């Protein structure tokens, strides 16, 4: 597969590389590393996303060249490309409106590089491995198949960030001896130490962030003798705390760290609906659960977007827990419904 994909890349010259909306470390790291690899091969490369690089990743070398917006320059780059590459997502809907509209101008082939389940069928070629710890792992393997020594310090930092963020700092079940050997190689080649990468991604909260944490954890709810826990993050909470959406990462890890919790659900209210993060330990399939609501992901980490008010979103998702535990049906307690209603209502 790797040699076949290399032939595809070597056979084209003008590239546009994109990734999913609200990009994370694996998305940006994979995009940047693949782009620099192609530039080393003498190719013309444009990195183009619907959403800007989040503040937690702005420090990453190479991220500053990522373009956003339906400008004439960006639209021309898409229209004139002879290969469009999508990394770290296999759904056109997840590319966001900006890239989706620009794709309407593009008539050429599309390459997918991804490690998620259930890819859509509109890709010309696919380089995918559901067992890979991150899309960055696939990019690393691809580059090493051609020439490992092309990995410069900035590419190494980007790929290490991809690995670190998509493995929960090397804690998830997807981490293998190969992943650690890869990480060791990237640390030796990288421009940033593991401490600097971790601090850049995770240790950048504003002084207002503790207020949000306090409000969110007041609503922490346990079900099934504490094996399932969920929290809600409402727009009202964010406004009251003075915190933006870019600071809501890390809540899944906090809840999952509580003894006895095996499944964590994070409901985040947005203007258009509710983003749901599914996390689990062990054999519980979060990707299957998320697919019920139009989402997807991995066995132990998945996501979905539900276009309903937050109270309805919580109720409909919890109804899908049937079969994961001994009980057959989850009914959202009346006090939980009242609490969510209060949280979602602006103060008078």
Write the layout of secondary structure elements.
Elements: H1 2-10, E1 14-18, H2 25-40, E2 44-49, E3 67-68, H3 72-80, E4 83-87, H4 97-103, E5 110-114, E6 125-128, H5 135-147, H6 153-166, H7 177-189, H8 194-202, H9 209-218, E7 221-223, E8 228-233, H10 235-241, H11 251-256, E9 263-269, E10 274-280, H12 286-291, E11 296-297, E12 301-306, H13 310-319, H14 334-344
Parallel strand pairs: 1-2, 1-4, 2-3, 4-5, 5-6, 8-9
Antiparallel strand pairs: 7-8, 9-10, 10-12, 11-12
Helix pairs in contact: 1-5, 2-5, 2-6, 5-6, 6-7, 6-8, 9-10
Detailed description of the structure:
With 348 residues, the chain is α/β, with parallel strands linked by helices. It has 14 helices and twelve strands. α1 crosses α5, α2 packs antiparallel against α6 (153-166) and α6 packs antiparallel against α7. It is globular, with a radius of gyration of 21 Å. Residues 327-332 have low confidence and may be disordered.
């Amino acid at each position: 597969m790797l040699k076949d994909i290399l032939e595809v890349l070597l056979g084209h010259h003008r590239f546009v590389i994109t990734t999913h909306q609200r990009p994370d470390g694996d998305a940006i790291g994979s995009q940047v590393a693949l782009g620099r690899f192609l530039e080393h091969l003498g190719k013309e490369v444009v990195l183009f996303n619907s959403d800007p690089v989040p503040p937690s990743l702005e420090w990453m070398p190479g991220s500053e060249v990522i373009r956003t917006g339906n400008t004439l320059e960006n639209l021309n780059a898409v229209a004139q490309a002879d290969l469009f590459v999508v990394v770290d997502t296999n759904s056109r809907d997840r590319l966001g409106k900006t890239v989706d509209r620009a794709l309407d101008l593009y008539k050429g082939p599309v390459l997918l590089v991804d490690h998620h389940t259930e890819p859509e069928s509109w890709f010309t070629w696919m380089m995918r491995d559901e067992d890979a710890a991150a899309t960055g792992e696939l990019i690393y393997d691809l580059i090493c198949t051609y020439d490992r020594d092309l990995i410069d310090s900035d590419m190494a930092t980007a790929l290490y960030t991809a690995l670190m963020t998509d493995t929960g700092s090397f804690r998830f079940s997807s981490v293998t001896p190969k992943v650690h050997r890869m990480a060791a190689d990237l640390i030796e080649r990288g421009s940033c130490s593991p401490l600097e990468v971790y601090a850049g991604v995770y240790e950048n909260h504003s002084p207002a962030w503790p207020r949000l944490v306090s409000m969110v954890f007041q609503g922490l709810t346990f079900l099934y003798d504490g094996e399932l826990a969920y929290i809600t993050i409402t727009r009202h909470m964010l406004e009251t705390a003075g915190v933006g959406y870019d600071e809501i990462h890390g809540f899944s890890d906090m809840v999952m760290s509580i003894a006895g919790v095996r499944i964590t659900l994070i409901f985040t209210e947005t203007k258009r609906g509710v983003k749901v993060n599914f996390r689990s330990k062990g054999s519980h399939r979060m990707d299957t659960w998320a697919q019920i609501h139009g989402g997807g992901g991995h066995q132990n980490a998945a996501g979905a977007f539900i276009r309903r008010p937050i109270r309805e979103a919580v109720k409909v998702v919890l109804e899908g827990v049937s079969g994961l535990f001994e009980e057959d049906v989850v009914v959202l307690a009346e006090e939980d419904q009242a609490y969510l209603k209060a949280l979602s209502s602006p103060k008078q």
